[in-house]
Design a protein that fits this description.
The protein has 193 residues and is mainly β. It has one domain: SOS response associated peptidase-like (hypothetical protein yedk fold). It is built from three helices and nine strands; from the N terminus they run ββαββββββααβ. Strands 1, 2, 3, 6, 7 and 8 form a six-stranded mixed sheet that branches. Strands 4-5-9 form a three-stranded antiparallel sheet, with no helix packed on it. β6 and β7 form a beta hairpin. The longest helix is centred in the first third of the chain and has 9 residues. The C terminus is likely disordered.
Length: 193
């Protein structure tokens, strides 16, 4: 899969902004995601994910992982784009939702984390309708995740090393220890979301 969903109806992907995130609250309302929600749901396995806290012109990166350790599954959508000359490209995006209280201290949105017992509900597009699947779109429970600040070196794709997830602070932040910050609306996402 190529990162960044391109809807099947796009004529030329070079002139279309890639959709790397899909707002879970409006998937069924947006033409870019409606068919994928119904027919092409997927899971992205991950050990964790990065998010950034804006502080003026600076953004501080954080690594978010399961408190219990191990992998998680992020809800996703995929699409098969076919060009006029028969070229074909499979693309995908992560489904997001409003952040839980702890993650809202750094960013107002978070990926949808699908628990193992709900994998079949999300993936079975033949028997599970989009309304039932969309019920899984919710913030992760407060006590499920921890986060810690990491090196700003993660801001460059050239830096792809295991130590990019190592903390630069002594203790991970949990829901109880998270600093209080009022979340601002995310205005960076386009109107297709």
């Amino acid at each position: 899969m190529r990162w960044g969903l391109i809807p099947a109806w796009v004529k030329d992907p070079r002139g279309f902004s890639l959709l790397i995130n899909a707002r879970g609250e409006s998937l069924d309302d947006k033409p870019a995601f409606r068919a994928a929600l119904r027919y092409r749901r997927c899971l992205f396995p991950a050990d964790g994910f990065y998010d950034w806290r804006r502080e003026g012109e600076r953004a501080r990166p954080y690594y978010v992982r399961l408190k219990a350790g191990g992998p998680m599954a992020l809800a996703g959508l995929w699409e098969n784009w076919m060009g006029p000359n028969g070229e074909e490209m499979e693309t995908a995006a992560i489904v997001t939702t409003r952040a839980n209280r702890m993650l809202a201290t750094i960013h107002p949105r978070m990926p949808v984390i699908v628990p193992p017992e709900a994998f079949d509900l999300w993936l079975d597009t033949g028997r599970v309708d989009r309304t039932t699947a969309a019920a899984l779109i919710a913030p992760a429970p407060e006590d499920m995740l921890v986060l810690h600040e990491v090196s700003p070196a993660v801001n460059s794709a050239a830096n792809d090393m295991p130590d990019m997830i190592e903390p630069v602070t002594a203790q991970p932040i949990t829901a109880a220890a998270a600093p209080k910050r009022k979340a601002k609306p995310d205005i960076r996402q386009g109107s297709l979301f």
